[in-house]
Amino acid sequence: METIVRKIDKNQIDEDVIREAGEVLKRGGLVAFPTETVYGLGADALKEEAAKKTYEAKGRPSDNPLIVHIAEYEDLKKIAVNIPPETDALAAHFWPGPLTMIFEKSAAVPYGTTGGLDTVAVRMPSDPIAAALIRAAGGFVSAPSANTSGRPSPTTAEHVMEDLDGKIDMVIDGGSVDIGLESTILDMTVEPPMILRPGAITADMFEEVIGPVSIDETLLGSESKTPPKAPGMKYRHYAPKARLIIVEGDLREEILAIRQLAYAAHREGRDVGVIATGETLPFYKYGIVKNIGSRENERTIARNLYRVLREFDEEDVDTIYSESFAMQGIGKAIMNRLEKAAGHMRISAAAIVKEQKYRRVIFVSRADSVRGPMAAELLRNQDLRQEYVIDSMGLVVLFPEPANQKAEAIMKSAQMTLEGHFSRQFDGEGLQDDTLVLTIDSNQKEKILSEYENLKNVYTLNEFVGDDTEIPDPYGKPLTAYGECYEVLDGLVQKLADRLNLDAERDG
Ligand code: AMP
Ligand code: MG
Asked: Which of 67, 120, 195 to mutate to test the pocket of ligand 1 (most atoms within 8 A of CB)?
């Protein structure tokens, strides 16, 4: 089957396209269309055979019910019975919008659509394209997410085509969706109503309208043996091809843990995927790092989640590590989808982080233009078992200057460079317990210790590696003196790398 793609502008809906799509649905065909949550795979909800086609195209188990989409509130009465009184208030507040409510079904709804259940899930989407299409199709359009079962839900028409090209009649391309996560599902057949799937509309929002609601605990507890009340929730969902692991802890620990894991993988010659946020992106150096959105605005994370998961399928990674997100507001829905995508695989950041003693090494010399920067660059070129932020600073730096030219010439001849280095004044600021400060001589060490009493881990380089070969000061001398200095530093830094690697082995 050839899948027709029709572009449409939300703000200026082309009625011809809507009519064409409506006809396809009325004939019992399948049309994918945008909604405010994700793209839906539409079919006539009142036709048994149309539901069958939907399951086939998605490769979806047929006990996983579909949601019926309507465009007029009055239409609810045609497909649901025993509608509880709170429904009016909920609909007034949240319809059209990302809320699905479950009711006892009327005889009009075939069991194919409800996956054999006597209840029916109903939603009124707010997307104007969706509303127009539902009307054109006769008022009742069943629509699960328009993806292959198990894959991340589609948030663009391209995602739909990735999965369903050739399997459905038509795709209406209305651009990117707004919310990016499926609707909140609220079961209205129990008292009080129960949230079966978290979404953009949260328990707090319901509470303001109808008082307390309950939450299906099987959604949150990963180890629960009881199947969730919303049948589809038992299947592995939204999963990328690589194995996804959620790293849990406080944010600082999560970043450190993921950095350790990404560095370890990199040393083994492979890359892992990293799901980071705009705020944390700069902290990652290794791995294939993707920005999922801003922690300041979790809606951006919801909107990008499935796209990012899909993008990792294009990358050569077998493991993806994700930061975790706050369980507030839409954060609950984000974590719910992420946990499903991860098949509930989580690791504790703290457990990984505590293994590394030093994370930052600062070489301190007088002017930060010769010996400090050379030592730092030498260490960066060592094969280190753990990742370190390696810097140099000086005790007398009046303004930032590039490295000494002779020092640079020596480094160049050893296939290294001090290019881009600018001298910095050591000010003891922002140093943590995991910082190792190594001075070139003992006067520098004494000076630091007397000025910054709280600093831990200040040693001379000689002392730290247990080798008292003197580090000569080549400043103002010919190039050969710089070469001799280099040789000494090279020997000491190799010992330093061995010492750090030995510590890493002991810890890890
Ligand atoms: P999708 O649109 O792909 O998210 O799939 C619809 C989901 O709605 C299903 O996987 C179920 O979790 C839920 N659902 C639909 N109908 C019912 C129902 N009658 N009772 C409980 N959950 C339902
Ligand atoms: Mg789905």
From this structure: 67
Q: Read off the pLDDT of each residue in 211-235 and give the average, rounded to a whole number.
A: 71
Q: Residue 507: pLDDT band by 50, 70, 90 thresholds?
A: low
For the segment(s) 243-353, the CATH number from 3.40.50.11030, 3.30.450.20, 3.30.70.1130, 3.30.1490.20 is 3.40.50.11030
Residue 354: band (very low, low, confident or very high) from pLDDT cuts 50, 70, 90:
confident
CB 288, CB 271: distance < 8 Å = yes
Check residue 508 and give its pLDDT: 58
* Residue ranges per structural domain of the chain: 4-215, 243-353, 360-507
The atom number, within ligand 1, closest to the CA of 121 reads: 16
Distance between alpha carbon 169 and the CA centroid of its chain, in Å?
33
Q: 3.30.450.20, 3.40.50.620, 3.40.50.2300, 3.40.980.10: which CATH number matches 360-507?
A: 3.40.50.2300
Asked if residues 172 and 134 have their Cβ atoms less than 8 Å apart, the reply is no
pLDDT confidence of residue 50: 95
What tokens appear for 237 in the block?
């969902």
pLDDT at 226: 65
| Superfamily grouping for domain 4-215 | DHBP synthase (3.90.870.10)
Going by alpha carbons, the residue nearest to atom 20 of ligand 1 is 230
Q: Which of 17-31, 149-163, 184-198, 208-222 has the lowest mean pLDDT?
A: 208-222
Residue that has been written with the tokens 């831990």 in this structure: 456
Question: 145 CB less than 6 Å from ligand 1?
Answer: yes
> How many angstroms does the Cα of residue 341 sit away from the middle of ligand 1?
17
Same fold, 4-215 and 360-507: no
Question: Considering only CA atoms, which of 290, 493, 261 is closest in space to residue 392?
Answer: 493
121: closest CA among 105, 137, 133, 140?
A: 105
* Phi, psi values for residue 196, rounded to 5°: -100, -20
* 233 ligand 1 Cβ < 6 A: yes
The alpha carbon torsion through 169, 174, 176, 177 (nearest 10 deg) reads -90
pTM for the structure as a whole: 0.87
| pLDDT on residue 429 | 85
Average confidence score pLDDT of the chain: 94
Encode pLDDT of 129-145 as tens digits.
999 999 999 999 999 99
Q: Is the pLDDT of residue 387 over 90?
A: yes
The Cα–Cα gap between 217 and 203 comes to 13
Kindly identify the ligand whose nearest atom is closest to the C-alpha of 148: 2
